[in-house]
Amino acid sequence: MKIQIEPHTLQRAEERGTNIEEIQIVLEQGMEIPARGNRKAKAKVFTFKRERLGKYYEEKRVKVIWVCFK
Q1: What is the pLDDT of residue 4?
Q2: What global pTM score does this model have?
């Protein structure tokens, strides 16, 4: 499967505390979750153990939503 991530999408992902490597891991290993319309989605929980935006988190959940084009 060819994956194309738009530059704006990657920028927003990084603003939200994730990166392309974690996105790829979610797509390969994540659990399927419901998504609206013709979208698909997967999520995975990663060990985090750091502070983000002034609050400490043990874990973080990364959710990836995408559309398949034929």
Answers
A1: 81
A2: 0.85
